[in-house]
Amino acid sequence: MGHTIKAEPNGCAGEKGGRLLLVVEDDAALSRTLVRSFERRGYRVISADSFEAMQALLLQQTPDFAVVDLKLNGEASGLACVKTLHANSPETLIVVLTGFASIATAVEAVKLGACHYLAKPSNTDDIERAFGMTEGNTDVELAARQASIKTLEWERIHEMLVATDFNISETARRLGMHRRTLARKLEKRRV
Among 3, 30, 112, 113, which is disulfide-ready with 50 (CB 3.0 to 4.6 Å)? Predict the structure, then answer.
C-alpha cells in the first residue's frame, strides 16, 4: 500500500496568520474535507495518510497544529503519531479524532502529548474550539459528544478480546461476566 503525502500550501494568511496544520487521516474523503475546511479558515494545510507519510513531512516542516486519527491503516496507530509529533515539536497542538472513544485511549493520547481527544463525528468547529481551549481561551466549550454506554462496553470487550488472543472464556473471566453472556453480546455484533 502506497502512502500519500500532500503538501498543500495555501497562500492565504487569513485570520490564522497562515499557521501550518497537519492532518493525519487514512480516510481520503474525511482528509479532503478537513483540508478544505481548514484552508477556508486561513490555515496552510499539509496531510498524510499514514505514520510513515507523516514522518516524511516532519523532516520538511513543523506544524503549529495537528489533527490525528487514532485508528490508522497499517501497524502504527495514531498514538505513535502523537508521540512522534510531540517529541519533534512540543509546541504543536495535537487533537486526536476517533470513532472508538474510550477512557483508556484518551488518557494515553494526552500522556503522549495530545491536547484534546474528540469522538467522531467532530467537525472543524469542534477541532478549532479544542485548539482554542489549549491556547488559553477559557470561554470556549466543546460540544458534548458522550459515547454511549454500549459503545464504551463494546470498546472494552474488544480490547480484552485482543489482549486474550480472542479467547472467549478468558475474556469473559477478565470482564467478570459469564461466558454465555459474552457469547451473546458477540453474536449480536456478529464478531
Answer: 3
- Looking at the structure, tell me whether residues 87 and 57 fall in a common domain: yes
Residue whose C-alpha is closest to residue 93's, from 80, 110, 78, 105: 110
pLDDT digits (tens, 9 = 90+) for 94-148: 999 987 777 778 888 888 999 888 888 788 888 988 888 655 443 434 344 445 5
Handedness of CA 101, 107, 108, 111 (dihedral sign): positive
Q: Which of 65, 73, 159, 71 is nearest to 113 (CA)?
A: 65
Domain count, the chain: 2
Same domain, 159 and 69: no
Q: What is the CATH number of the domain that holds 177?
A: 1.10.10
Residues 105 and 157 in one domain: no
Quick check: pTM over 0.90?
A: no
Domain presence at residue 128:
yes
Angle at 120 between CA 157 and CA 106, to 5 degrees: 55
Assess contact for 174 and 161: CB atoms under 8 A: no
How many CB atoms lie under 10 A from the CB of residue 190? 5
- One-letter amino acid of 103: I
